[in-house]
Amino acid sequence: MKLGVCYYPEHWPESGWEDDARRMVEVGIQVVRIAEFAWSRIEPSPGVFTWDWLDRAMATLHAAGLQVVMCTPTATPPKWLVDADPGMLAVDAHGQARGFGSRRHYCFSSLSYRAQSARITTALGERYGQHPAVVAWQTDNEYGCHDTVVSYSAAARQGFRVWLQQRYGDIAALNAAWGTVFWSQEYRNFGEVDAPVGTVTEVTPAQRLDYQRFASDQVVAFNRIQTDILRQYSPGRDVVHNFMGFFTEFDHHALCADLDVATWDSYPLGFTQNFFLTPEEKRHYARIGHPDINSFHHDLYRGMCQGRWWVMEQQPGPVNWAQWNPAPLDGMVRLWTWQAFAHGAEVVSYFRWRQAPFAQEQMHAGLNRPDRTLDQGGVEATQVAQELLQLQTQAHVPTAYPQAKVALVFDFTSIWMAKIQPQGADFNAVELCFRAYSMLRQMGLDVDIVSSHANLDGYSLVVLPAHMREDAALAARLAASTAQIVLGPRSGSKNVSLAFPECAEAMPPGAFAALAGVKVQRVASLPPGLEDALHWTDGGHSNLTRWREDLLCTTAAPVAVFADNKPAVTQNGRTWYAAGWLDAPGWRRVLGMAAQAAGLPVVDLPTDVRTQRCGDWQFVMNFSAAEVQFVPAGAVQCLLGAPVVAPQAVSIWKV
Ligand code: GAL
């Protein structure tokens, strides 16, 4: 459990660097990430390298005892490079090349840019690969940020044809998979196929899905060039990348196969404003952040690199990029930091050391204000560092993060499928996963978010809120397990080419049909205001919005029915199926039944309180506005805090 910070020596006069390093140590920072946007200072003209300043910055940090995460600067190709090779720019859906003047303007498919990326990565690897301060490398910065995964450049279009040729072998296979007989779209050869853009109305869904797969593969390939080089020049150091929140445009599980540690950038207040929460939730959580946004990503990214993960950028105060940018309540920066450690983070690194008084992010807080005084975030980081020190001397800090009893399956292809063919404007598969996850957390359950390939041994409850992709392999592993299973609406409803499933007589839930004991006969999306009532067979009601399916029970029995008496939630042995978009009480009912059958103890936590087990430490985190008396079951000693947890505070118990 270490603290880190993002630092930009190139933004500040060199005369202040030593003082910065000294004060970082004073705060309790151990890890410093640098150089991810510094290309124009490292190589101001083609082939002219100015390493001296970076050498001195590294020496200053090293002399202070700080460890460095060195980054490749490829998110910001400099002006001279763009001018020399405008073909490396990404192109948007309107055919417009992405302009110079911000960042992430390159196209992942540009072979010439890949060569430039390899060249600068090699130069950095040669220079700093063996530097004693370097503990890790970060590739690039936030792949895909600002909607940059999909590009329609000439390089991308050409790359897509090659990719299709490799995937399908012959054009007849592509025509069959995409269903191009529909609307006379048949192709005679791969050279005729283009990117799915600019069509009069909806483009072939299978073509869009393949373009997303292709674009995802381009990101993975781009990253792999860098990881291969860094491993050669800097063996033994961790290679990491910093992912984002609620961002699903490429397959993170695939990319993580080339990394040692998954890191992500945690901006709970920005995400609360910018994502799918209701207006009431946005208001209620404006200065706290929804308590489950952070943990959802902690649990997701913990599942990517054999449990190794960090927060690379932690929000330290107001940000600049959300629709509205409120200030966190005092205590939140500390609580977010402890929350990350509770979920097993190795490092929590704040963005950034000092607020920049110029350029795009001048309204974005840092740990320090522009005048070099410590801001509230810096005060709270200092407090966490002191608490960590105290805990490390008085108690054995957990080193192993235990496997949870509950797994939630998160599948990038399914997310893309739902986005390409939502059928109702608000059918958001990421939100569906989040809502199910959030309910599990409110029930006091710890959750591992896993890929569809994960080993399911040891889980007593497996939840698949949005596994739209037909997945016979996963269905077989679930059938062979002893876990209780909860399937959300549209499960298994599309085959690999985004058409109806291939098995179970071509009706959803396809490969999951035998487990669920149902067949979906009709689906309907519900506009806002159109609701259906659910009557639970053991009493009580809940509501259904957005989505409804009509089920035929082959072997399942309903545990809830709609107003018209048709099955709404069913049980078939170990498997529950939800035939629509449940509200929170609905999720509570079905997850509660499955948890009970799984023998999992459920605690309905006080509002906005969350618990989390890490090793033999049990965390109690209070995101609410009121103090809460809460002592976890099995608690033997209070290591931090007290039985009464103040608002925005945490207690840690040994159990
Ligand atoms: C991240 C990015 C940083 C900085 C930060 C501001 O998305 O990686 O470079 O822009 O947001 O919150």
Describe this structure in words.
The protein has 655 residues and is an alpha/beta fold. It has 3 domains: 2-147 and 237-394, Alpha-Beta Barrel (TIM Barrel), CATH 3.20.20; 406-597, Rossmann fold (3-Layer(aba) Sandwich), CATH 3.40.50; 609-654, Sandwich (Immunoglobulin-like). 33% of the residues lie in helices and 20% in strands. It contains 19 helices and 25 strands. Strands 9, 10, 11, 12, 13, 14, 15, 16, 17, 18 and 19 form an 11-stranded mixed β-sheet that branches. Strand 16 and strand 17 form a beta hairpin. Helix 5 packs parallel to helix 8, helix 6 packs across helix 8 and helix 13 crosses helix 14. It is globular, with a radius of gyration of 25 Å. The two termini are 19 Å apart. The model has no long low-confidence stretch (mean pLDDT 97). Beta-D-galactopyranose (GAL) is lined by residues 141-142, 145, 265, 267, 313, 319, 321, 351, 361, 364.
